[in-house]
Structures are given as C-alpha cells and as structure tokens.
Amino acid sequence: MNTPTTKISFFVKHKKKLLIVLSVIIILYIYNKYFTTNKVDKTNIFTEDEIVSNEPLMVPDCELPNPIVGGKYTLSFWIFINKHYENYLSWKHIFHKGTPISQNYMTKPDPERMECKKDLILDYEDWFSVITEIQEQCPGLWIHPTKNDIRFAITTNIIEKFNKCDLHAHKITRRVPEYDKPTPISKDIIEYYDIKNIPINKLTHIAIIVNVSYIDIYIDGKQLKIFNLQGTPKHNAGAIYFNFQKTYNGFIKNFLYSPKAYDRKDIEKLYYTSNLKK
After folding, report:
1. Residue 159 sits in a domain of what CATH number?
2. pTM here?
3. Cβ burial, residue 59 (10 Å; 0-12/13-18/19+)
4. For residue 30, what is the DSSP state?
5. Among 30, 78, 127, 215, which residue has the fewest nearby CB atoms (within 10 Å)?
6. How many Å apart are CA 99 and CA 150, to the nearest integer?
7. Is residue 139 reached through a cis peptide bond, with omega within 30 degrees of 0 on the bond before it?
8. Is the residue at 56 inside a domain?
9. First CA to last CA across the chain, in angstroms?
10. Structurally, how many domains does the chain consist of?
C-alpha cells in the first residue's frame, strides 16, 4: 500500500526526469502556439505560378479543394496591369468561378487541364449585363471599364419574407389568417466590393478572405477593408475561368486558392516572404 511518504519519495527520486518531461511539454506547447500558427498550410491548396492575360485558361473544379467549412476560403495573388486603356469602356474579365463560358475547349498535353478557345467575347459595358449572363461568381474579379478599380464579386443566397396577401392585386377587405404568415423566399444575388486605384505597371499583392458572413481584403500585406455580406456565399462546382476576352493587359503571379480563411499573420507571411516584393 502506497503511503503519502512513499509518493513523496517517488517524486523526489525521479524529480530530474519529471522536470525534463515537463520542460519538453512546455516547449512543444510554446512552439505550436507561437511558431506554427503563422505558417501557411500548403497541403491542400491550388496554386498557379503565372497566368498571362492573353491566354484564356479554364481550371476544372476537380483540381480545386472544397472549402473545409462552407463559405470560407482565401484568394491570394500578385497582379500586374500593363495598360489601363486596354478594352476601354468594357468590364475586363480577370477570373470567375461558376457560370460556364464555353463548352469548346482545346486539350493540353495534360488532359485534366484545358486551354479555352479565344473566339468567345465577353463584351459588357454595364455591370447589369455582367451579372445577367455570369450569374454564378463565387468568386469573380473584374476591372472597371473606365477606372483602374478591381471589382470583387460573389454570389450569395438571401432569405426574404413576404405576406401571401401581398401577391393580390385587388384590395383585401377580409384577411385570411394563413395569408398573414410570412413566407420565406430564397434568392441569389451578386454582391461586390470595389478595390480602388490599383497601380499600373507595378506588381500589387491582393488577398481576399471569404469568411461566411464577411469579406476581408488586403493590399500589399495591409488590411484594406472588412465588409459584411447580406447573404451566405453560394459555393458552386464550376470551373475557374481566367482571362476571357474582353480582358485586361497584364498577368497574375503566384495565384493561390485555399479552402480555409487565412488570418492576418498568414497574409503577412505570403506578402513579406515573397520574392516578388520590392
């Protein structure tokens, strides 16, 4: 039978070993908490080293990891815009995920990847035409027709409520009780935010974090804006389409799509450790 004296003598006898074990546990805890949380997990992400604007590209959904938590993902890339007046007066397509552009593709050596034919023209002078034809954009990125602004677009789903009696054109003099109950209606909309004054002839790092109910935007490693969404991001199983005419003149470097929401330290690491930073 172990007595209190026996237990105390055991701890005294193995004091050095216990202190070593405890020290190792503390060191591992500190390392995991303060030295690994700011590392970007690259085990489950999609990356593309360079995407040139004069080469339309389609990346199938099977190459893209699904969000770990619905409505959460991160986009990170460097963009270089060569000429502001390229395709002036038209919305310039950078990329979008969702609505198919064309079913006509030319296969590359890798059958999983496809280079899209260049005969399809997306010629939109007003934003309404864009969202009418490209209804699924989760996400989408466009350059303004007359400004050096980049528009981030995202399809969301909202729930609206209305009374059934509101559908009647004639005046109701006697209400029916069940008509008074609000009926939920699900509707898809496209929400957007404009990133103003993107530099011309200069590499700019842009990071966009979609975090269910809000969007977090960083420019060159610094937080630019957090804006709340009206609805819930509507993730789709469509491909990502890059650089369909009419598009911009330039290129994208180090494109990254991650199925989780990065934090500030992750974005700073992507920016400050990049060899593209000057």
Report:
1. 2.60.120.200
2. 0.73
3. buried
4. H
5. 30
6. 20
7. yes
8. yes
9. 71
10. 1
